[in-house]
Design brief:
It contains 7 helices and 3 strands. By secondary structure, it is mostly helical.
Length: about 250
């Protein structure tokens, strides 16, 4: 019996992605295409979910037709449903940008999902209004059904705003090196000196090492000198038990 096994290819290394810009930025185009398709879906869902508006076509004083909505809540309901759909799409876009565009995390992805979110919302509005049935014309003193229309145009920015908000929130909670600033080391300060006369730290360390070596060479058994050693390399024990010559146990005279 033949054994058929599927081997998954390993993801390309980072150096390969860096040397191939089209391959590196291909996920951005994928996310853009997904958001545009989501815009089409939002437009269709908005069209199906929104209630059909009812208005009256009446003449004014100059006998010109005037459209009077029968229920103002119908217009608000259509805009509210568009808001909820864009709200959900923005959250999903922020999550997708964070997890699917991991190698490109940073300001570029943030701006990309924001711009793509605006385009997605515009596509949704165009699809919903283009496919909506109804008409704004008819005989005077009659009932008409105006087509679907987005009255609050600012709602096209809901999706990009939520996408940026979710992405920035995940970046603030992440330990990714792309968002963590390197530790800052404070420069050494010397009282009474300015930046022009401040000594080089390497010179200070070298001078300290030279002073320590000089103290070992002088020896002499002083308080700060090197201790005398026997043949085994151990310090000579003096009667005082402190390893210092000339400071034995005091006796009464």
């Amino acid at each position: 019996m033949t054994d058929y096994r599927v081997q998954l290819a390993d993801p390309p290394p980072a150096d390969v992605l860096a040397s191939d810009p089209p391959r590196r930025f291909r996920p951005l185009l994928t996310v853009l295409g997904a958001q545009l398709l989501a815009g089409v879906g939002i437009g269709l869902a908005w069209l199906w979910w929104s209630p059909r508006a009812v208005s009256y076509l009446v003449p004014d004083a100059a006998n010109r037709p005037v459209i009077i909505p029968a229920e103002a809540e119908t217009q608000i309901a259509a805009d509210g449903r568009f808001f909820l759909l864009c709200l959900a799409a923005g959250v999903l876009t922020g999550l997708a940008g964070w997890f699917l565009l991991k190698p490109l995390r940073g300001v570029l992805v943030l701006l990309w999902i924001a711009a793509a979110g605006v385009l997605s919302s515009l596509v949704a509005v165009a699809v919903g209004q283009a496919l909506a049935p109804g008409s704004n014309s008819g005989p005077l003193n009659s009932i008409i059904h105006p087509p679907l229309h987005l009255h609050a145009g600012v709602l096209v920015f809901v999706q990009p705003f939520l996408a940026v908000l979710v992405y920035a929130g995940l970046a603030g909670l992440s330990n990714d090196a792309a968002f963590v600033a390197p530790p800052q080391t404070a420069p050494l300060s010397y009282p009474g000196t300015d930046s022009e006369t401040r000594p080089d730290p390497a010179d200070v360390v070298a001078a300290a090492s030279a002073g320590a070596d000089g103290g070992r060479e002088r020896g002499g058994g002083g308080r700060y000198g090197a201790e005398p050693a026997n043949q085994d390399g151990l310090p000579v024990q003096h009667p005082s038990g402190r390893g210092e010559p000339g400071r034995g146990v005091g006796t009464a005279e």
